[in-house]
TrEMBL record:
It comes from Brassica campestris (Field mustard). Pfam families: BACK_BPM_SPOP (PF24570), BTB (PF00651), MATH_2 (PF22486). The lineage of its organism: Eukaryota, Viridiplantae, Streptophyta, Embryophyta, Tracheophyta. This is BTB domain-containing protein. Belongs to the Tdpoz family. Residues 29-163 form the MATH domain. One of its GO terms (biological process) is protein ubiquitination. PANTHER family: BTB/POZ AND MATH DOMAIN-CONTAINING PROTEIN 1, BTB_POZ AND MATH DOMAIN-CONTAINING PROTEIN 1.
Amino acid sequence: MNKTRVCGEVSKSPSKPLTSSTSVTETVNGFHEFKISGYSLTKGVGVGKYVASDTFTVGGHSWAVYFYPDGKSPEDNSSHVSLFIALASEGADVRALFELTLVDQSGNEKHKVHSHFGRALESGPYTLKYRGSMWGYKRFFRRDSLETSDYLKDDSLLVRCRVGVVKSCTEGPRDYNINVPVSNLGQQLGSLLESGKGCDVTFEVDGETFSAHKLVLATRSRVFRAQLFGPLRDRDTDGIEIEDVEASIFKVLLHFIYWDELPDMQELIGTDSKSASTLVAQHLLAAADRYALERLKAICESKLCEGITVNTVATTLALAEQLHCFQLKAVCLKFVASPENLKAVMQTDGFDYLKRSCPSLLTELLKYLARLREHSVTAPGHPKDIFADGCDSNGRRVKQRLH
């Protein structure tokens, strides 16, 4: 995101101000790209029906792009496609600038652009008063012209949008310039682990020994706290044997506990292989769950979401189910259910493992596929009860409620 600032200064005396302040008004800008594949299949869905992008966040608010293949209003007789940006979260008087771009996919850069950026607006930014308020164009493009243009390629359209949410604040004077050092607590604790000074517990893991500090472990993990200091703590808390965790994974776990960040994973596993990185992340996710390290667990989930492939998604999905990682599970289901991936995933060894270890997931996958077919013209992630209606007389900027 980038910011555009507009400043105005106020003072009590032009020559010798007693106090001063600065009013700062800026736009917090965000971008989203929405690809509409299978355009020809969306035709005939009906006037007022739309396909929608996933929601995206700009300026603390959620937004979505709505594309109407048969147009938004009956009076247009499906002669035009309609395109809008909608506020998808609760909001009151959200002021914003907008830009909609239909991308020329021939490479000639002759994009169709409607933008408020870079030009003066007579009445200022647009105001959206509630969830469902929209800005856009009923008659964005004639449908017959669109279908013979360079905007349509391989039966797909590409829309880029830009939202600039207006934010204002007042800054008072600052008559000091103190340089505050960046926190190096993680580095200090990491150095303590590497030095071995004061270590009072050792772990035997897969034939390797690791030394650590009880208080640090107990502070970072409630599981370690119960194991080392709880009423049911192990008798021998100076030497503990760890099972079902590989030594290399436990080493990364300790590194994170002290440093609060992961080591260089490529250096750790000795390769930049995507499948190897995914395997490490899977094992590390299980270890993070075992020791209730929620931040590490979230990091692993994020990495697994980024690294999903046909060959790894089934085992990742099974792990997400077992560890109750609902966001990771949802991403995996969406990946598997896509027509271009489903057949290939079903032919992997991981899918066989999924059927054996989590048979209930197959039922969920079938239900997910059924929902996709039932709402094939509505992007997943948008509630069924959200629909757009109403517009102004010129068919451009509209404000409406999504009931």
